[in-house]
Structures are given as C-alpha cells and as structure tokens.
Amino acid sequence: MDSLPNSFNPNKRLKEEFVTNLTGSSMLEVSALLTIVSILVILRHSFSSNRHFDTSLKKNDNEILGSKDWRAYMATMAVDFLVLVLPNILFFTVLADWTYLWAILLIIVLFFIIALKRSDFPSPSLEKRIHYTKEFISSYRVSMMILTCLCILAVDFRIFPRKYAKTETYGTSLMDIGVGSFVLVNSLVSRQARNVSSVRWKTALQSTSPLIILGFVRLISTAGVDYQVHVGEYGVHWNFFFTLAATSILTSIINVPPRYSGMLGSLVLVGYQICLMRGLNLYVLSNERGMDIISQNKEGIFSIFGYWGMYLLGVQLGYYLFFGNNSSAMLRSNRWAGIRALILSILFWIITVLLDRHVERVSRRMCNLTYVTMVLALNLQVLAILMLSDYIPGSKTSILEEAFNRNLLGAFLLANVLTGLVNLSVDTLSASSVTALFVLVVYASTLSTVVGIADFCGIRLKFW
C-alpha cells in the first residue's frame, strides 16, 4: 500500500522498490573493494606519528583543558577523515567503475612503501608487538564499522551502484557483508575467544537487554515515521539488533570452551544447510507470509542459526589467532597471526567457491553456509592486509580509529539516526550526483566529528 499523502516519508514505496530485486556484483569485486579500504588504513598509518592525545576532558572540576591540545586533536581528526573516510565515499560512488584498477595501484604503492621503509624499521620488542596486535584488531573493527556507516546512507542515492546494495535472494554485494562482519568482529575478541570465565545466562540476558531495547525502539520509530523497510531482509518486525541479541544469548546459554566452539559452530552450520536444502530455503525465500510471528519474521528467525554458527567459528578463530592458551593481555605475535589469517582466508575462499558452485549460492537473507564462509574469507583477508602495517614504521592507529573503537555502538546508533534524518528531509532518489556527494560528505564529517568530540570528552559507549 502506498504511503498516505501526509506521511513523513511520501516516497516510501519508491525507496523500498529502489533496494528490491537486486542481484549484487561478484566476490572478486567485493574483495577488491575491501582491499582498497584496508590499504587506505595502512597508508594513513605509514605517515602518522606515534603521538597520542589525552582524551579526558579534565581531571577535576577546577582544571580546564588547554585550547592548543583541542585544536591539534581536531586537526589530526581532519587529516584522518581526508585519508580514511573521504576516499571511501569516492570509491563507492563516482570511482566505482575503476575498482580493480585502484586496487592494483594501491597494492603496488603499499609494497613500494614496505620495500622503502622496512630497512629503516627496527624489530619491535615483545611488549610493542602485543600492543600493535591490539591496535590491528581495533583498526579491523573500525574499518568495518566506517564501511557500514557510509553504505547505509549511500545506498539510498542513485550515485551508489545498485550492484553494491543488498541482494534480494542469492548473490554477493558489498552491503551483504555488513551484518555478518558485525557478528564476526565481535566474536573474534569476545569473552569466549579470550577464554574469560563464562557468565550465567541470566547475566547474559541482562547484558544484551540494551540490544533488545534498541530493536524495539527501531521497530516503533520506523513505524511511527512511516520509514522505508525492506521486509524481505529480516521480516516484518525483526531487525539487526534482535539478531545480535539472539546470537549473544545463544552463545552464553550453550557455552563451550573456545577450542571446541568451532566444532559446534560447524555442526550448527552444516545442520542448518541441510535443512535449507531439504525445503527450508523455499519457505524462507517465499513472499507468502502467514499471520503467526514466525512466518512474519522467518528470515530473521531462521538466519539466527547461521549467525550463531558464524559466531562460534569466530570465537575459535580469535582464540587460535590472537589469544591461544594465554590471557587477553598476552596476545600472540601479530606477524604470526597475520600469516595464519592469510592462509585461513585463502582456505575459506576456496571453500566458498566450491560451495557456491556445487551446494548453494551465497545468500545473506538466509545466512547459509556459503555466506558464512564468504564473510570469514573477506574478514580474514582484511585482517591479514592490515597486519602488513607491522612492516612499516609509524603509528599503528589513528585518532579517528581510536575514537570510533571506543564508541562503536554509539557511532552505529548515530549513523542510523543521521541516515533517518537525511531520508526524511531529502529526496534521495531525485538528488543529483553532486548533491548526493555533498550530503554524504556532510553526513560522514558530522558523524566523525561527533564521535571524535565524544571521545575527547571521555564518553564511551562500547559494543556488546
């Protein structure tokens, strides 16, 4: 049914159709895009100093922060934005037709810098290696977050290629990896991966209650302003926050040691894939819906099994790559982890290609086995590339990355609010390329500035 004439969102139906029935691009193109994102981070690190700013606003009520540090902090944030954020906006819009060329050029530049600077870079101490590994993980988390925040608004403009938007049933696209990456990012550094003593399920339910509340807030707010929602993505009432909460609760209730979580995750994924191939996929992908809550939200509910299996695999990978039998403070050598991440990425790419050709094509909507292995391959690829930064002198992080890393959930919530405001105030479908670029740059700069100011003032809103 069309929106009412006095609706907050008169173009709701057109905007929903704009992101419907899409088939995506290729796995190779998505891989090339993520390679570009990763190399931009390394290039920023290569000419960034090791200077760190004290981000506490004041130590006591009588102490006033010096304006000089504030100006230096914001100036550094601006440089970070110009290197880490602005190029990505261009690569996902006006430069989208030259993705492979830019990926090759940036790879050449990266290895040239490594060859040029490696001889002048002394081998870091064990203490520094441990610190570097933590920063590489942070860069990985932030890279995926910034990518997600940019895409959730860009997709509503015509300047954003339809091949990068979420696919309808089967296929691969840049935005398809968003929710999977969110789940995997958190599993790699979770309490389970660090082998920290497990919490009781009641405590786990309390810790995930903010996600559940956010899920209902999103449901109510989108209905209240008649905001466009593609029902085929999660269902009528389900959304991203419910998926995250359900995955967290399941992992806490059925708690296994990290060295065995991969086995359980594999069993869950294989069992789920068998059910899909025996007819569940036809039910999930069907446009017909009953009146019961499961049928209304079949995509979101059944895909939980895929995301849960992915999370469990991520727990064992995090334990294997970074933590081992040691405590969270004794991270393994980052070069060792980088090499193994690269090997595992290649392995998962091979598995993904075989599954896509002989079992079932990639489907984010169902979170099938092929989708899980593709997300694993892409994210491990990003990790492996970022760890090349170990061979280059300079800082291993940036002010912008630190700010986002300390406020991941806050940044994501703010990005959603800003995206909603833009969609309710701008006719994104009719916007010219120049207007779209302007809006995206203002949106990204606003997001970065607010997150930076919050971090400078000592505000922290972490992920689950």
From TrEMBL:
- How does the record classify its membrane topology? Multi-pass membrane protein
Recall the GO molecular function terms of this protein's record.
Answer: glucosaminyl-phosphatidylinositol O-acyltransferase activity
Give the keywords, sorted.
Membrane, Transmembrane, Transmembrane helix
**Domain of life per record:** Eukaryota
Q: Cross-referenced Pfam families, in alphabetical order?
A: GWT1 (PF06423)
| Location of the protein in the cell | Membrane
This protein is called: GPI-anchored wall transfer protein
Q: Which organism is it from?
A: Quercus rubra (Northern red oak)
